[in-house]
Structures are given as structure tokens and as C-alpha cells.
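Example 9 (inverse folding). The structure is encoded as follows.
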């Protein structure tokens, strides 16, 4: 970490470039260019300018003696670098329309600061500006702060604005800068300082106002960031010099904190908008009835990254504690899917959580992003579909799978493809059509609990007398006796195929979960 110089009276190249009325344009340089000190300025028209300049001075030229070859350009820049010159200013449309290609290429390769001067800006105006600022601390501080603020605000246009803000503030102030969370985790900026050790808990729990610290030979500022109720963030500026934190730097740090706060608001707004779009898109897919509606829904899903043509599966998510808890769980699921970069659509629909995922999302990812969130969550997965007209069918499949005891992930995940034919037939046929026959068998069995228990266990264990006996703690002959009693009660032999199918459906009906309810942690029928 460099010693802080931004709090001294140094006038920098960044300050000069920031003078808007001069319209100077920095076309070459490196990350240190903005912070280079400007101690003076001189117009020089000579191929060997070193003897006319001092350390920290800027050379201005009309290009009258501009180097004509790459070798000559490199020699000029080497001489400027040797005397400690800060930058080279090149006047346009005086001798040359633009900076000679050899000079510009050599400056960029060397990382030497070179700026252009437009024809409307007179050299004496630049000279006057430099010396008036060098001699005026107050004016310079004001101009410099304005430049820093514009420089920080420009970070919003970058792909990683939070990181850019921290880096730029550190660059122009010659300090270490970080955006950290309440637990000391670095979210952006320098990671070469043990911030958690440097900043005791009392600092991070202090009132929401800027405060200073001195620890481990460093001094600094802690600026709270208005980041919403979900998290507390802080912008921290640290330097070796305990006198380094000037009023200008404090104002710049507050500007940076405000920009980071604005980013948080924008991010929350963006996430809320995306959430609403995904919800509306899924509802449109589930409710589309015409070809036109399906095409619109498919296009909107594609804009969300969910391509129906590549295959989509609908998931029904249920929780025994009701819709309020389910809604909170769905929020967590959406956050996990987004952080995992898995495209999805999600909404609360028909009293369940409804999620559309690409067909290639496997059980392991569903376990990681859904079931691990809450031990009471259950998930049913519908068939893969490739057209908007079939999405509602996959949704019906998912709800059916959700109501059926699962065979995957500790019984809390069931795919429609894993359901047996009896389960599907029973759920697809109108229940009232089956009720008379079902009640005809089940009513007398309910009056004989032992017979009912034995029959249910017998079918649960795939008609295996040995497994049934072990599950009930009885001898196999006792099971055979009880099953003979069941045959007497229902009046038909259990060896008949039609009886087996009928009893299976009757037992499914008797244990059917009401559509609006979900039992907690239903056991697997493995």
C-alpha cells in the first residue's frame, strides 16, 4: 500500500485533465497517471526537451519539432522520463492534425502520460490554470474533489461497478480502499489487509456516521453504506500517514459510499423487476390457450434464458406449514438458482411453488438448490416438454408427483416418470366415478383395523408375505391367515389380477392427500 499523498497540496495530472473548460484528453498513460504531481508547466519546441524541464513539470508542444521516427520518439520520452516530467501535452491542428503515430505508439507502449490540446484551447490558458492551482490550495481541493466525484460516478458504466469504485478511489487518493461487510468480509477492493483485525467490532457497530480509526500503524475512515435492512456494508479508506485523511478525501469517500449505496438500490430494483418478469412469464405459459399466446409466452421465457425448444420441466414445491412459509422458501430458491446461474421461471401458483427449469437440471441440483433449503420441503417434477401448449400438462404431472411418496432424495423428491401406472390412472380418472366401487371394498375393511393394516402393508411391500411379516413383527403364517380374512371381507380372491389392480387403486384413494395440503416428510415407499 502506497503512502497517502492525496491529502497534501499536490496538484495532479488528474486535476488538470478534470478542468472541463480546457477540454484536454488523456490518450496515453497507465493506472498511476492520474495521480502524478504537476509542479509546473513549460512550452518546449525541441527534440531534446530535458534541459528545459524540472521534475514534476508538464511539457507542452505544438508539434513543431515532433519526432518523425519511432526511435526518435522513444528517445524523447526516455529523456522526459529521466528528468521526472509528469506528462506531455500535444496541441492539435497547429502543425499536426493528430498526434504522430510514432509518438503515440511509443507513449502507449511506455505507459507515459500524453494528452491532447484542442485548437480552441490556448497554451497560455493551460499555463495560467496550472500555476494558479499550484499556488491555490483551496481552489485546487475544490476542483480535485469535483474531478474525483465525476470519476467515481463514471464507474456505474463498468461491468463491475463496485470493484471499479474501490479501485478508482484508491488510485486517486493513494490509499487502500475496501467495501466490507459487517463480519469483515471484503466485497470489493483491496484484500491485502486484515480488515477484520484492523477494524474492531466497536467500529462496525458504531452509529451510522463516518468515523476515524487508528490501529496497527494505519489511520483511516469508516463510512457506513446505506445498503438496506438485509446487510450492513462499510467503505473503508486506510493509509500509513495518520494525518492523511483530509477533508477532500473524506468527502470523496462519502461520495463513493453514496454511489455504492445507489448500486445496491439499483440492484434490488433490478432483481425485483426480474422476479416479476419471471413470475408473469410462467403464469402466461401455464395459462396460454391459443397458439398466439403460446408464441408470446415462449418468446418471453427465452428472454429469461428458458428455452422451451430445448426442453423444460415443471416443478411443484410444497411445504406443510402453508403458503407464507412456502413463499419465503421460494424466495430462497430463486436466490440460489440465480447465484448458480441456472435459468428459471418461478411463481406461487395453485397454492404451490411453481418453477420451470431446463430439462438438463438433474436431481442433484434440485437437492442442492431446493431441498437443502428446508427439511420440510417436498418437490414433484413433471415430464419434460418442448412447447408452450404442454407446459400446463407438465405442471399437472408435477403436482401429482408432489402428492405421491417419493423414491428419490430421502423421499422428498418425486418425478412423474417414476410413478406407477396405478397412481397415474387413479389421479387421471374422475374420483367420483371410482368412489362407489372403492367404498364397497374399503368400508368393511375399515371396520376390521387388523385386516386393513395387513392389506395395506402387503401392497406396500409388493405382495411379499415375508417382507410384510417382518414389517408388522408377525410370523408369515399369521399374515396368510389375515389375508384370508381380507378375502372373506371383500368377497374376492387376492390372487386375481383384477382384484390386485382394484385394491391398489382403492388404497391409493384412501391415502390420497387433499390437493391443498401436504403431509410433513411423507415416508418413501422404497
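The amino acid assigned to each position is listed next.
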Amino acid at each position: 500500500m502506497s503512502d497517502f499523498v492525496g491529502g497534501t497540496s499536490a496538484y495532479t495530472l488528474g486535476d488538470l485533465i478534470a478542468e472541463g473548460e480546457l477540454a484536454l484528453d488523456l490518450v496515453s498513460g497507465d493506472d498511476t497517471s492520474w495521480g502524478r504531481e504537476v509542479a509546473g508547466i513549460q512550452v518546449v519546441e525541441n527534440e531534446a526537451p530535458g534541459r528545459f524541464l524540472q521534475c514534476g513539470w508538464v511539457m507542452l508542444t505544438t508539434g513543431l519539432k515532433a519526432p518523425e521516427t519511432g526511435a526518435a520518439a522513444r528517445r524523447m520520452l526516455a529523456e522526459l522520463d529521466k528528468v521526472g516530467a509528469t506528462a506531455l501535452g500535444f496541441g492539435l491542428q497547429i502543425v499536426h492534425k493528430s498526434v504522430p503515430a510514432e509518438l503515440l505508439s511509443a507513449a502507449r507502449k511506455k505507459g507515459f502520460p500524453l494528452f491532447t490540446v484542442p485548437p480552441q484551447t490556448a497554451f497560455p490558458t493551460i499555463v495560467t490554470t496550472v500555476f494558479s492551482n499550484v499556488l491555490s490550495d483551496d481552489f485546487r481541493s475544490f476542483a480535485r474533489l469535483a474531478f474525483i466525484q465525476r470519476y467515481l460516478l463514471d464507474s456505474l458504466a463498468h461491468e463491475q461497478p463496485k470493484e471499479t469504485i474501490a479501485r478508482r478511489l484508491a488510485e486517486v487518493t493513494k490509499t487502500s480502499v475496501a467495501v466490507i461487510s459487517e463480519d469483515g468480509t471484503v466485497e470489493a477492493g483491496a484484500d491485502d489487509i486484515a480488515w477484520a483485525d484492523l477494524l474492531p467490532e466497536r467500529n462496525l457497530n458504531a452509529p451510522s456516521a463516518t468515523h476515524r480509526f487508528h490501529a496497527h500503524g494505519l489511520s483511516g475512515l469508516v463510512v457506513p453504506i446505506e445498503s438496506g435492512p438485509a446487510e450492513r456494508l462499510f467503505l473503508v479508506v486506510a493509509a500509513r500517514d495518520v494525518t492523511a485523511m483530509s477533508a477532500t478525501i473524506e468527502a470523496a469517500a462519502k461520495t463513493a459510499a453514496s454511489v455504492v449505496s445507489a448500486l445496491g438500490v439499483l440492484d434490488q430494483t433490478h432483481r425485483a423487476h426480474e422476479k416479476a418478469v419471471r413470475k408473469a412469464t410462467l403464469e402466461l405459459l401455464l395459462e396460454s390457450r391459443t397458439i398466439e399466446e403460446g408464441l408470446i409466452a415462449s418468446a418471453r421465457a427465452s428472454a429469461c434464458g428458458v428455452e422451451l425448444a430445448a426442453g423444460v420441466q415443471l416443478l411443484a414445491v410444497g411445504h406443510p406449514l402453508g403458503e407464507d412459509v412456502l413463499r419465503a422458501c421460494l424466495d430462497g430458491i430463486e436466490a440460489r438458482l440465480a447465484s448458480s446461474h441456472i435459468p428459471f421461471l418461478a411463481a406461487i401458483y395453485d397454492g404451490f411453488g411453481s418453477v420451470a427449469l431446463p430439462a438438463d437440471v438433474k436431481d442433484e441440483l434440485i437437492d442442492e438448490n431446493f431441498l437443502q433449503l428446508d427439511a420440510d420441503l417436498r418437490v414433484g417434477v413433471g415430464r419434460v416438454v418442448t412447447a408452450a401448449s404442454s407446459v400446463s400438462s407438465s405442471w399437472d404431472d408435477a403436482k401429482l408427483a408432489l402428492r405421491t411418496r417419493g423414491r428419490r432424495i430421502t423421499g422428498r423428491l418425486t418425478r412423474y416418470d417414476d410413478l406407477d401406472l396405478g397412481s397415474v390412472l387413479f389421479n387421471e380418472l374422475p374420483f367420483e366415478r371410482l368412489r362407489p366401487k372403492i367404498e364397497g371394498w374399503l368400508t368393511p375393511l375399515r371396520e376390521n383395523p387388523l385386516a386393513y393394516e395387513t392389506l395395506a402393508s402387503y401392497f406396500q411391500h409388493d405382495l411379499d408375505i415375508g417382507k410384510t411379516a417382518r414389517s408388522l413383527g408377525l410370523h408369515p403364517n399369521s399374515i396368510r391367515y389375515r389375508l384370508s380374512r381380507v378375502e372373506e371381507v371383500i368377497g374376492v380372491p387376492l390372487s386375481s389380477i383384477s382384484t390386485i389392480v382394484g385394491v391398489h387403486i382403492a388404497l391409493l384413494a384412501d391415502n390420497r392427500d387433499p390437493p391443498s395440503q401436504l403431509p410433513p416428510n411423507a415416508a418413501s415407499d422404497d
